[in-house]
Give the backbone structure.
Amino acid sequence: MTLPIAVAVLEGRRREEIEAVVQAEMPWTWPGRALVEQVFRASLDDVRADPETRLWGDRLMVTREGPPRVVGSVIFHGRPGADGTCEISYGVEETNQNRGYATEALTACLAWAMEQPECRVIEATTMEWHKASARVLEKVGMKRAGKRRHETNGEMLVYEMRRMR
């Protein structure tokens, strides 16, 4: 994820403009405004001020077969904090779900993050009713670590992956 891509998406530019920046076809229904607001907790000004911190590790899921198509994204919520903890989330556009994209992308992004010296713990949250999301998190090696209250989503399950010492 580059600053120009983040700016195009956060500014809500036309689909054609985003595709030109991304150099891949964007899904018609993704990213929706709600997804952008949920994933990008920082303001556009914050992203522009420090893209290396805010966009740390963020990736788009782009198909390898046929013309390149964006099918989802994996987003870290910024560089790990002083305690070495960061948060990750992901989304796959609805028509591309259940094809292994999330598992493949999360596996690669988690491996990359764990190789970074500043990263020791990666957390992810999902709603208790979202069984498919929990299965993906477990499949990629994350372990259920508890629950956390979210201001708008209510109680969330917390999963984590810890660096082996």
About this structure: The CA atoms of residues 10 and 43 lie 9 Å apart.
